[in-house]
Amino acid sequence: MTSVAIGLFSAPQSALSAAEKLNSAGFTTAELLSPIPLEGVEAALGEKPNTIKRFTLFGGLFGACFGFILAAGTAVLYLHPTGGRPIITLPPFFIIAYEMTILFGILATVLGFFISARLPALKERVYVPEVGVDKFALTVRCKNAPELSRVQTLMREAGAETVRTDEETS
């Protein structure tokens, strides 16, 4: 069973400084919840890797291969008299491959977005209702009691108004 330490802050700068302290102390599971967009969150928590571009690249490559194979396979399977010209000619097949590159690239990008955004949420996330109004929350998942008390101490030192604990079963 893991515990989640939740620190509530009234000022965004104090929440960002607490996130920096926790990140420098080695707690990489910290999440910052905010009612408004904040600048500097990536610097405080560390930038998360973006995998959506890889989905787009591999979707586009798969689409190009699929489009070319589809057009060439159709031309070979259903032969038409071509008067001595080759059956597989590249310019018209590149058009189909190009269109399939765009189609599969877009579909893979949408799929990558849903995976990256963790949608649908299979695991219950921490919900802090105060964040919807006027507070900033910093949540950290802790595995044991000493780690939890260390996180709570760091949050209080950084200026947290309230520090509470939620239990999580996982």
Plain-language structure description:
It is built from five helices and four strands. It is 49% helix and 15% strand. It has a four-stranded antiparallel beta sheet with strand order 2-3-1-4. With 170 residues, the chain is of the alpha+beta class.
Tell me the Rg in angstroms. Answer: 26 Å
Uncertain parts? none
Give the quaternary arrangement of the chains.
single chain
Enumerate the strands of the largest sheet in spatial order, edge to edge or round the barrel: 2-3-1-4
CATH architecture of the largest domain: 2-Layer Sandwich
Strand content: 5-15%
Domain module tally: 2
CATH C-level of the largest domain:
Alpha Beta
- The count of helical stretches stands at 5
Q: And the CATH topology of the largest domain?
A: Alpha-Beta Plaits
Could you name the key traits of this structure?
single chain, 170 residues, alpha+beta, Alpha-Beta Plaits, 2 domains, 4-stranded antiparallel sheet, 4 strands, 15% strand
Task: Write a brief caption for the model.
The protein is an alpha+beta fold and 170 residues long.
Helix-strand layout with pairing:
Elements: E1 2-9, H1 12-24, E2 31-33, H2 41-45, H3 52-77, H4 90-116, E3 136-142, H5 145-157, E4 162-168
Antiparallel strand pairs: 1-3, 1-4, 2-3
